[in-house]
Amino acid sequence: MRPGPAAAEYRIEDLAHHSGATVRTIRAYQDRGLLPKPERRGRANVYGEDHLNRLRQIAGLLERGYTLASIKELLEAWDAGRGLGGILGLVAEVDGPWSDEKAARITRAELNERFGGAHDDEAVAEALELGVLERLPDTPDAFLVPSPQELAVAVELHAAGVPLPAISGHLRELRIQVEHIAGRFLDFTTEHVFGQYLGHPPSDEEAAEAAALVRRLRPLAQQTVDAELARAMRTLATRYLRSHLDETAAEATEPAAPAPAPAVEAPAEHPPRSRAAAAPAPAVEAVRLPRRTVHAVRALVGPEPERTEAFIAAAAEREVQARTMDALADRS
C-alpha cells in the first residue's frame, strides 16, 4: 500500500507568498490569537494547510468589513465547533444587491454624445469621485456605470439646461440626506429587530433567521422612501406652482405706479374737496421692520432698496399663501 501524499508544509516566507499576507502580518495574527502557533522543529517554525486556510478566512472576513476583534470571536466559535456557515450566509445576504438594477458599461464617446457632445474631463473626474462612473482595468476609454438610472437622470437634467457642476452639487447634497435616512432605518431595525442577534457570535440557526429577516426587510426602506418622496413632491410641487402663478397674476394686474411727485404736505385745515380731486392712493404702504431684519436681507440680495423691497414682499406673500392653504386644508 502506497503512503498518501505528504501534507504541505511551509516556512513563514512560503506561507506569506501563498496567502498574500506579509510576514509581519502573519506574526501579528499569531500575537492576537487569530492564527495558531506553528510547529517548532529545531530552530525552524513549520506551518501547514490549516494555517493557510485560516489566513484565507481572515482575508475574506476583512474584505466584508469585519474588524480583527470580531473575526477573533467568529474564529473562536468556529474552533468550538459551531461553524461559520450561518454567519457567512448572513454576511452574503447583507452584502447582496439592495436593488434590482444591473450595472452597465459605457464608452467615453457614448458618454460625450449623451451629454451633448462636449469632451468635459473635469465632469468625468467628478463623476468618478462620486461613484457615478468607475474605471475599468485595462480599458481607458470605457467606464462601468453602477446605476444606469442615476446616469440617465443626470442626462435628462443636463438636457433640460442644468449645468453639470450644479448636478454634481445636488447629488452630493442628496447623498448626505439619503445616507442619513439609511442610517436611521438601520438604527430603527437594529433596535427593534436585529438587536437579539448582535453582541455575540450567532449560532447557525440565529444567523439563518437574521438572514431571512434581511431578505424580508430589504425592500421596505426603499418602499417607504418612495412613498414619502411622492407625497412630499405632490404637496410641495402644488404649493410651488400656486405660489408662482399667484405672483405672476399679481404682477399682471398691479396698476402702474404713479410718477413720483414732490413731497408737499397739505395743510390739515384744507382737506380735499372731493374724491375726484384727491390724489390717487399709493400702491404701497410703509411698514416698520427691525433693523437687523433689513440688514440680513441686504446681506443676501445686495444693498439696492428695490431688491430688498422685492425680497421682503415675496417672502411675506409666500407666508400668507401658505397659511391660507393650510387654513383651507383644515376646513376640508
From TrEMBL:
It holds the Pfam family MerR_1. Residues 248-281 are annotated as: Disordered. PROSITE patterns: HTH_MERR_2. One of its GO terms (molecular function) is DNA binding. SMART domains: HTH_MERR. Residues 250-266 have a biased composition (Low complexity). Residues 9-77 form the HTH merR-type domain. Keywords: DNA-binding. This is MerR family transcriptional regulator. It comes from Streptomyces morookaense (Streptoverticillium morookaense).
